[in-house]
Amino acid sequence: MSPNAKPAKKPVSTLFSTGPTRKRPGWSPAALDDAAVGRSHRAAGPKARIQTCISKIHSVLELPDDYVVGIVPASDTGAVEMAMWSLLGARGVDVLAWDAFGRLWVADAVTQLPLENVTTHIVDYGHLPDLSAVNFDNDVVFTWNGTAAGVRVPDGDWIPDDRAGLTIADSTSACFAMDIPWEKLDVVTFSFQKSLGGEGGHGVIILSPRAVERVNSYTPPWPVPKILSLAKKGKLDAGLFDGATINTPSLLVIEDALDALLWAENLGGARGLIARVDASFALMDEWVARTPNYAYLAVDPATISQTSVCLRFVDDWFIGLIADQQKAVVKDVEALLAAEEVAIDISAYRDAPTGLRIWCGPTVDPEDVGALLPWLDWAYVQTRAHYQADAA
Ligand SMILES: Cc1ncc(COP(=O)(O)O)c(C=O)c1O
């Protein structure tokens, strides 16, 4: 079909936001009817819901038996900073960054925590640092999927099994959507409002036995606020991993996460979710190969994120514009897509290069991704024609 022709078919859902993401197909507020609202989260019934949520996360992700899962305050950021504040300082630290979120963890390591031996590996958007330069005698902090760049690590092969340090992986836009080799990771974090389409507010932290051992054998020399503490009296706060949250959780958020996890179970668990992501990405990849207007921001094909797909505009006319004009064109493309009720919330992350970001996680229907793609070309070509007519 010519990009000048208006596509006939629209996505059923216009929701392609990268977080909060769209909810699972068929979701309605009735999914929360059984939430234990108005009750104490320490009472047996509500606590059992939290415990069920923890055990479903464990089983759906197919975590090793000896990994533990806790629900913590302050979303994914809370979970990552909990790991950093509670675990780092026992040895040197390597911190990797290739998007805004990785840079946050670099800033924590360099400007917030009084760490003595920090090595940073920071690269521009679109690239991945040289993974062979990472020192695994140190603890290593990185992001499995750089959501703002659409760049992920290709696999876990670069992480040695016999590492001395801990690996701490912010995996919020990767968990439930990509294959993750758990044995390579000692701390994994995510939040419900990414792949599960859950509500925001809480983070999830997953610890390997080696991370638990660190908590039990090491106390950081700095003050650790209660909400960032994995320890109680110098030992792992075991209750946290058995549904006794540090402070008051939202039982609505827990109920909603349970609903998403049940949906995941009905699809066959993480494998079913990943199959949906793969189906969407196959459509995306086939389209990117053929569109003259867009390309991935990720430079190396092995590192392209299948969930947070970041696109740049590559048409000659667009490349010839100055930065402010490019931004204006992209805004107009987005406005046209929104006006046509095709897609909303698809702006690139605020400090990422100009472009679009399309969430293709498990809750997004692959058919909707397929329906969206011709619209991306159409909206760009229409917008370009407008500008060119104005300039003539
Ligand atoms: C890789 C990554 N880390 C951290 C965050 C911050 O997450 P939260 O808002 O759950 O703290 C995000 C949000 O998009 C993210 O993509």
Q: Could you tell me the mean pLDDT?
A: 97
Rounded to the nearest angstrom, the distance between the terminal CA atoms is 27 Å
Small molecules (ligands, ions, cofactors) in the structure = pyridoxal-5'-phosphate
Strand content: 5-15%
Helix content: 25-40%
> Helical element count?
9
The CATH topology of the largest domain corresponds to Aspartate Aminotransferase, domain 2
Question: Main beta sheet, described?
Answer: 7 strands, mixed
What report would you give on this structure?
This protein is of the alpha/beta class. The chain has two domains: 30-266, 3-Layer(aba) Sandwich (Aspartate Aminotransferase, domain 2), CATH 3.40.640; 270-391, Aspartate Aminotransferase, domain 1, CATH 3.90.1150. Helices cover 35% and strands 15% of the residues. It contains nine helices and 14 strands. The strands form four sheets. Strands 1-9-8-7-4-2-3 form a seven-stranded mixed beta sheet, with helices on both faces. A three-stranded antiparallel beta sheet has the order 12-13-14, with no helix packed on it. A hairpin with a 2-residue loop joins strand 10 (231-232) and strand 11 (235-236). Helix 1 runs parallel beside helix 5 (251-266), helix 6 (270-290) packs parallel to helix 9 (366-391) and helix 8 packs across helix 9 (366-391). The chain is globular and about 75 Å long. Bound molecules: pyridoxal-5'-phosphate. Pyridoxal-5'-phosphate is lined by residues 19, 75-77, 101, 143, 147, 170, 172-173, 191. The site of pyridoxal-5'-phosphate has 11 residues, from helix 2.
